[in-house]
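Lecture notes, unit on protein representations.

Consider one protein chain, 284 amino acids long.
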Amino acid sequence: MTWQLFVGFSVLLFSLNGLFHRVLMKEENSDPYAQTIAFYGLGGIFALVISLFRGGFHYQISLNQLPFFLLLIIFATAAPVLAFKALKLIEASESSILLSSQRLWLVLGAFIFLHESFSFQKLIGTIIILLGIMLAQWKKQRFVFNQGAFFVLLAAISYAIAEIISFFILRNFDTTSFSVYNALLPVFVLIIIFPKTLKKLNFYLKPKRALNISLVSLNDTLATIFLFFAYQIGRNASQIGPLMATQTIISVLLAILILKEKNNFLNKIIGASLVVVGVILVIR
C-alpha cells in the first residue's frame, strides 16, 4: 500500500478515539495516570500480539538508539498525562483546537531535525488546516488561558517531539516492535514513579469501562502502526503530520452525519472546506 492509504486508515481510526477518552475522564473516579497506564498497557499488549504474528518481536536496541529511546520515554509519558489532565479542566472543543497545534510543531521539527526539505507551500497548507479546524470547533466562546489550556499546549509540544523522535528511530527499526516499546515504556515509568496508581486501575475493571478502554486502545494501536508504516514508506513527516490533523475535522463531520450535531453548521462546513484546501497544498 502507499503511504497515503496508511495515513488515511490511521486518520479514520484516530478520529474515533477522542470521544471514548472524554467519556471516561468525565467520571469523578477517573485518574489521568491510571488512564494512561490502562490505555498504553493494553495498547502495548495488542502491539506485541501483532508483532508476533508478523514474524516476532525484535527487542534489540543499539547503543546509538538508546539515547533516543530515553528521550522518547520522557515525552511519550508526559504527553498523554497532560492531555488527560486537561480534559478534566477545559471543554473538549477547546482542548482539540489547542492540541491540533502539535502538527505545526511537527512540521517545523521535520524541517529542522529530520532534515526534510523546507517548503512554504507545506507550511502554509499546515496553517490553513489548523485554521479550518479552529473554525469548525469554535463555539463563540472566549478563550481563557488557564491551567487546562497550558496543559494542552505542553501536551501538543510533547506529542510533536515524541513523534519526531519516533520517526527518527523508525528509519532503522521494525514498525510493530517499535510500537510495543512506544506503548509500554511510558507505562513502566509511571508505575515506578506513581506505584499507588495501580490501585486506581479497579476503575477500569467494570465491564462497560473495560470494553471502552480496550476498544480505544486497540483502535489507537492499529492507527499508530499505520502511521509508522506511512512514514517508513514515505519518509515525509512534513506531509504526514498535517494530514493527521484532519482526524479532528473528520470527527466533526461524523458527528454531523451520525449524531446529527448541527450546531455551528456553517462554521463546520467552511472549516472542512479550508482543511481540504490545506490538504491539497500539503500533498502537492
